[in-house]
Amino acid sequence: MSILVTGGAGFIGSNFVLDWLAQSEEPVINLDKLTYAGNLENLASLQGDARHVFVQGDIGDSALVAQLLAQHQPRAVLNFAAESHVDRSIHGPEDFIQTNVVGTLRLLQSVRSYWQGLDEARRAAFRFLHVSTDEVYGSLAPADPAFTETHKLEPNSPYSASKAASDHLVRAWLHTYGLPVLTTNCSNNYGPYHFPEKLIPLIIVNALAGKPLPIYGDGLQVRDWLYVKDHCSAIRRVLEAGRVGEIYNVGGWNEKPNIDIVHTVCSLLDELRPKADGTGYAGQITYVTDRPGHDRRYAIDASKIERELGWKPAETFDTGIRKTVQWYLANPDWVAHVQSGAYREWVQTQYAGTDKP
Ligand code: NAD
Ligand code: DAU
Questions:
Q1: 159 in active site
Q2: At residue 274, does pLDDT exceed 70?
Q3: Contact 261, 225 (CB under 8 A)
Q4: Strands 3-6 and 28-32, sheet pairing
Q5: Cis (ω within 30 of 0) for the bond into 214?
């Protein structure tokens, strides 16, 4: 038995692979293209671990995916691979369509072909789990109820439009071909190995470097934050017990305006790594031009996954954000390698003298 994870060198995917192998002997085949967001240093602790098979490649490479499926015969495919950064999607949407839409289409086709060739028992047990986002639901007004799974899809950015398209494809592959799919739509994650182009890690690394802390617009946009390890446990639970064809919203019940998030991070840094000159990190906050089409508010109603599958987040925002800031302070080399680009050399370092990846 094994599972195939795509995008397992990214932020959430690498946390998932590490968590999975911390509590299971079942091997993980990890297919990742290693774009700028893929970082094998996240998985350095698995060096020499035969349960982790890393393959550098594209989910849209049908021949490669077919070969991996035939060779490893996984009982499930979990699709984390995506272009994930909203600001990048505004500057260059094409990569988002290529990976999130065309890539997902090709992956579904490869998986369908493999799944159809399985014997009856294995076909019935097989799952394709698609990891998606709350951004597909669009933006909420302040008094609107949180997104449920039946909320209509109203994506507003090239990123969220591409994710919504992939969600539709996944749904269609169930209804048309019977592929046993599951979809999770999750809110904003934070935690270890988060690439510092996203709000929380950017604020931590800029604060420590004495740089401005950029707040888009008025800073009153609301996001619903979930510690990444809670997202990983939700995905494990959905894979284990989710009903085929269902969507499960995953969230932390932690709605907060961006400016509050930034002040919380600054206060934690003031406590854990006070500035030599005695001033607070909040003095570095700088309001900048807003993101075009910036969604005002996301909020996830996560009661279905709690009611049906008994999943609840283990961390509060206070405990999760403290762990996150502590992790960044304890891992300056990881931060330095990401900032200098040296993490991209990890493939050569890690696999020097071998035939992988
Ligand atoms: P990330 O950008 O950190 O990682 C994406 C990974 O996918 C990288 O390792 C990259 O190399 C890989 N990848 C990109 N294109 C690929 C391709 N064509 N073939 C194979 N691999 C490819 O993203 P993340 O934040 O870890 O997000 C993972 C998934 O979760 C995405 O599908 C994203 O839409 C979804 N999601 C993210 C969040 C969040 O807050 N980060 C919240 C909800 C849902
Ligand atoms: O909601 C889930 C989504 O969360 C995921 O699907 C995406 O993959 C993930 O990137 C994230 O999208 P956001 O756009 O919400 O995350 P980001 O960290 O880019 O921004 C969070 C909020 O902070 C958002 O309102 C924009 C704002 N922001 C962001 C940056 C990078 C700033 O004010 N300043 C910044 O410098």
A1: yes
A2: yes
A3: yes
A4: parallel
A5: no
Q: According to the 3-state scheme, what is the secondary structure of 283-317?
A: HHEEEECCCCCCCCECCECCHHHHHHHCCCCCCCH
Are 286 and 214 in contact by the 8 Å Cβ rule? The answer is: yes
331 alpha-carbon distance from chain centroid: 20
Looking at every residue in the chain, the average pLDDT score rounds to 96
- Cβ–ligand 1 distance for 252 under 6 Å, the answer no
Instruction: Give, using CA atoms, the residue closest to atom 14 of ligand 2.
Output: 86
Domains (range + CATH), the chain: 3-197+225-256+297-317 (3.40.50.720)
Q: Is 83 a catalytic residue?
A: no
CA distances from 125 to 62, 168, 181, 232, 344 (A): 23, 23, 11, 21, 37
353, pLDDT greater than 60: no
pLDDT band, residue 344 (cuts 50/70/90):
confident
Catalytic member of 135, 224, 295, 315: 135
Which distant-in-sequence residues (6+ apart) come within 8 Å of 347 by Cβ? 34, 40, 56, 357
Taking the centre of ligand 2 as the mean of its atom positions, its distance from the CA of residue 197, in whole angstroms, is 9
| Residues in contact with 271: Cβ distance below 8 Å, sequence separation at least 6, in sequence order | none
Q: Which residue has the tokens 């209804």?
A: 175
CA of 86 to the centre of ligand 1 (A): 12
pLDDT per position as a tens digit, 128-177:
999 999 999 999 999 999 999 999 999 999 999 999 999 999 999 999 99
Residue 60 is classified by DSSP as T
SS3 277: coil
Cα of 279 to ligand 1 centre, how many Å? 37
Determine the residue of 36, 80, 84, 86 to mutate for testing ligand 2's pocket, defined as the one with the most ligand atoms within 8 A of the Cβ atom: 86
